[in-house]
Amino acid sequence: MTDQPQRIFIVEDEVIIAFEMTDTLEDMGFEVIGPSVHLEDAKDKAKDEDIDVAFIDVNLGAGKTSAPVAQILKDRGIPFVFITAYDRAEIDFVSVDDRIAKKPVSRDMLLRLLRDVWPPRKNQASGASN
């Protein structure tokens, strides 16, 4: 485990936002996995890719949510943050321990969120939650 995450997974169905996040993270020196703009692709990548941290949108369009992706990441022990326009109370599948950040996200916010969830052992040991 390094001092900072290297491989960031992005799940975002709004292509412009997905590529803005990708560009921002790549400019900061991270390797971006994705972005995944469709649920099936996101599930496949969540299962198979080497991921340090993920940023995932809640609503993936056409009545689909990122709940299955979040569950795969949880099962693999990969920290993630929901990036969404929704309030926590509007999302029926989030747990008390899930982190949520409101859109729009800036470069500074992405860095802050990465610091909040990395390294995962630190947050698990301290019982940190949003």
Summary tags:
130 residues; alpha/beta; Rossmann fold; five-stranded parallel β-sheet; 5 helices; 5 strands; 39% helix; 19% strand; globular; disordered C terminus
Descriptive report:
By secondary structure, the chain is of the alpha/beta class. It has a single domain, classed as Response regulator (Rossmann fold). The protein is built from five helices and five strands. It has a five-stranded parallel β-sheet, sandwiched between helices. The two termini are 24 Å apart.
Provide a concise account of the structure shown:
This protein is α/β, with parallel strands linked by helices and 130 residues long. It is built from five helices and five strands; from the N terminus they run E-H-E-H-E-H-E-E-H-H.
CATH superfamily: Response regulator
**Spatial strand order of the main sheet:** 2-1-3-4-5
Quickly count the helices.
Answer: 5
Q: What fraction strand?
A: 15-25%
Order of helices and strands: EHEHEHEEHH
What is the makeup of the main sheet? 5 strands, parallel
Structural class: alpha/beta
List the uncertain runs. Answer: 122-130
Number of domains: 1
On the 0 to 100 scale, the average pLDDT is 90
CATH topology: Rossmann fold
Shape: globular
